[in-house]
Amino acid sequence: MGGVTMQEDENLEDPSGEEAMEENQHNNGVCGCLCIPVHWFKMLSREMHWSFVFGVVSVYGISQGLGGALASVGTKYYMKDVQKVQPSEAQVYAGITSIPWIVKPIWGLLTDVLPILGYRRRPYFIIAGFIGVISMLLLSLHKNLHLVLALLSLTAGSAGVAIADVTIDACVAQNSISHPSLAADMQSLCAFSSSVGALFGFSISGIFVHLLGPMGVFGLMTLPAGLVILVGFLLDEPHMPNFAYRQVNQKFIDAGNAMWTTLKSEDVWRPCLYMYLSLALSLNILEGMFYWYTDSKDGPSFSQENVGFIYSIGSVGSLLGAILYQYALKDYAFRDLLFWTQLFYGLSGMLDLILILRWNLKFGIPDYFFVVIVESIAQMTYRLKWMPMLVLSSKLCPSGIEGTFFALLMSLDNLGLLSSSWGGGLLLHVLNITRTQFDNLWLATLIRNILRIAPLCLLFLVPRADPNSSILPTDHSLSAKEGIETSETDENIELVSLVNSVDGK
């Protein structure tokens, strides 16, 4: 009551009401901050049509972010509890389902040079959505689905997401050329949508797996796929009724020749080789770790809700890694930064070893709390390792085929991830790590950590340049005559696809 009386006295002494005005300004400032994102979305919708913004949010945020998180956790429990496969087999199968992302240049070239019924983008969204809906329905409705059919359905669902990803990337690239002042805003829209979607998706994934089971989660996945179909019908795109389909074969040939010419350059293949090996040697044994996480005898016996929350915290760590790189590390030379990030990435894996040996309990740190810390650090260090590789990849792209060549580099990186997944599955099999046997999991983790540090010996393949300098020699720039000859400006713009895929997927 004394505070109220004092305030009333001050108001009486201040007839001009300055404090009330300041408080009103403060409230307006808070409301203004909350309204900034709304005004930003409205501005993007006004400048580039609302259907484009809807497409980015639907594909990046809901299909890839939220849907990808649900699918990731749901697939792990589906392989473990429904198909009842060994962790080494689940690791191999996870690599197989990622194959559609390895052939991303094919999807990119198709949406760039082969329109359907006079449209370049809309039909591919519709096709991708229907592939996703059918594959998820098949998984959700058949309780005793054969493993081969289940694997084909998971791969088809992954293909649907990959095709939608490539198509929206092409839309973003095209709008970045036509609205250069908003290019950074579009990148921010993509990153924001993906991060928020993944964070929310992982947060609820464990709850839905617990309530509905993994097959029920696959049923929910039909909704993001259906939303992609809706994007295809709503997207604002000009119709091209008289397209010269006879030129399609020549465009494919020109693109292939241009990419092969660039790859033969020593300035390109050496860093490409390093990026592939650095990913392939970092063996992926996540399926073995997941089986151990949920084991009631030898592991911490985490519930579905706990697993989902752990992964959601990991996505926060990944976001923090991206912010740290953007504001503190982005100007460092590639070789120096890759040395330290690769080293820290390998050392961070030792935390998994501490957890498996249960040393954390000796220090009085509960499993759940320690795993949350480990997952956050692991995702943050991986993001710090991945970001300079993405920037380096963009520096290796010659003029004229930037988008298509960047898609090729991302495919090589995804091939490295596939090699990592299959190599990890082989390691789990050799060490006899099964659904109920985890005695050698510590050894698999130790081998993985040592191999993570091995790429430090290959850093001589990486140029000493920094992100602000040019890596390719000036006379190496591929013009339209050497690369993809296109008479129309729009066709040149449309070949700049996939540049926005910054997660290697």
UniProtKB/TrEMBL annotation:
Segments passing through the bilayer = 50-70, 90-110, 122-141, 147-168, 189-209, 215-235, 273-294, 306-325, 337-359
- According to the lineage, what is the superkingdom? Eukaryota
- Keyword check for Transport: yes
Where would you find this protein in the cell? Answer: Membrane
- CDD domains of this UniProt entry? MFS_FBT
Give the UniProt keywords, A-Z. Answer: Membrane, Transmembrane, Transmembrane helix, Transport
- Topology term for the membrane: Multi-pass membrane protein
Q: What is this protein called?
A: Putative folate-biopterin transporter 2
Could you give one GO CC term from the UniProt record? Answer: membrane
The UniProt entry, under SUPFAM superfamilies, shows: MFS general substrate transporter
Tell me which family the UniProt entry assigns to this protein: Belongs to the major facilitator superfamily. Folate-biopterin transporter (TC 2.A.71) family.
Q: Which Pfam families match?
A: BT1
Biased-composition ranges, Acidic residues, are 7-22
Q: Where is this region: Disordered?
A: 1-23
